[in-house]
Amino acid sequence: MAGRANPPEGMPPGGSDDEFRSTVFDESFIRRARLQECSAQERLADHEHPVRPLPPLGRVTGSTAKQVMVLLGLVILAFGTAMYMGLTGPSQEQTATEPRPLRATIVPLVPRETVPGGPAEELFSASQAAGFGIGADGVELPADVTGTRDFSDHQIRAALTLGKKYVVESSLDSGVLTGGATEPVRDLLVSDQRGRFDRSMRAAAAPGPPPPDASGQGEGLRAPPATAWLVRLDTEHVALADPGVRVSGTLTVTQQDRDLLEVTADHVFVYAVGPAERAAGNDQGSGEDAALFTVRRQVRLQIEREDLPRQRLSVEHVVMQAGPLPCSAVSADELRPILAGQSVGQDEVTGIDPYADRPNGTPVCGTLAGAAQPSGIG
User: What pLDDT digit, counting tens, does each position of 311-350 carry?
Assistant: First the structure.
């Protein structure tokens, strides 16, 4: 600090007196000092070095450089983490909530005896379906609808109404029943399930084995049959003898997650069917050869909060029991009920022999109870 040079930033105010020029120290002198006096504690520890040199201005020491690099690394890490979460977060969330492939169990019910027949109205009156509702009126909503922890009363009723709409379109719509329409059901599905639905419909229309399900769930999986999504009759052999399908059942709803509802529909549908020639003759309900075809469908539907206003749902699980049907209808894309006056082979009624050599496996089917058929006809 010796010498009579001017301060780096010029003479301080009032510094024109040459007498004090060498003893005036302003802040710029202190910042540009090359030596720094050690503290008292430091001088006690080191008597030989009362001062220590300071690094030149503009130079960064090794420790300072390390601190800067660490700080820069933390900033880069934080920025990279934010970018990663921003890019991958929504995709991971979508994968977690993506609807699973439809699981379906179809159990044909084989009649023990010859299927009774008669006029449709008499058959309905003589069966357990005598007191059932007709068509959509038979699909009733619960009388008391209350909200849950995260869904209001209005949202719960909307979910139940959407579930009823699926039941009506998939099991009662005449166009769907006869195989001429699929849009009423497809339009209710979330976008992720529509591709699977389309594969099932294409497999039903094309001969040969169904194509693999390309849902990414593994090799060897097959698209579910069309009858897993909806009720469809084989119109080459059967026709509706009465358009008024009898229906009875329940609709319930439970909250599965903060933004997810599950609607369970459990209904019995009773159809009056006759031979396909009936439709050509346009004599529905007037012939003596009608038979009752009973279908019980238990369906689990999931509805996301954001899908409620869109009127979209996903079909998770279907269990269907239907008869009278042959046991071979377990994986059919169309249902061909056994008509009035017909029966099946005795081997399908007496049971399954686990010791028999059946390399292709044995279908799972049940026996249609006598009480499920009309009684006192004729």
Answer: 999 999 999 999 999 987 777 899 999 999 998 876 566 5
Label the pairing between strands 291-304 and 246-257. Answer: unpaired
Examine the pLDDT at 26 and tell me if it is beyond 70: no
Which pair of structure tokens corresponds to residue 85? 């979460």
Strand-pair category, 366-368 with 103-111: parallel
In sequence order, which ranges of 23-177 are alpha helices (DSSP H)?
27-31, 40-45, 62-97, 120-125, 153-171, 174-177
Strand-strand pairing, 260-275 and 291-304: antiparallel
Backbone φ and ψ of 375, nearest 5°: -125, 155
CA distances from 52 to 35, 46, 47 (A): 6, 11, 12
Burial state string for 290-325 with b = 16 or more CB within 10 A and e = fewer than 16: bbbbbbbbebbbbbbeebbeeebbbbbbbbbbbbbb
Dihedral angle, C-alpha 250, 255, 259, 264, nearest 10 °: -20
Position 365 scores a pLDDT of: 81
DSSP state of 200: H
Residue found under tokens 């201005």: 57
Cβ neighbours of residue 96 closer than 8 Å, sequence gap 6 or more = none
Radius of gyration of the chain (CA): 40
Q: Which residues lie closer than 8 Å to 17 by C-beta, 6 or more apart? A: none
Q: Is 274 helix (H, G, I), strand (E, B) or coil?
A: strand
- DSSP run (H or E) holding 107: strand 103-111
Structure-block tokens of residue 313: 């749902």
**How is residue 180 annotated by DSSP?**
S
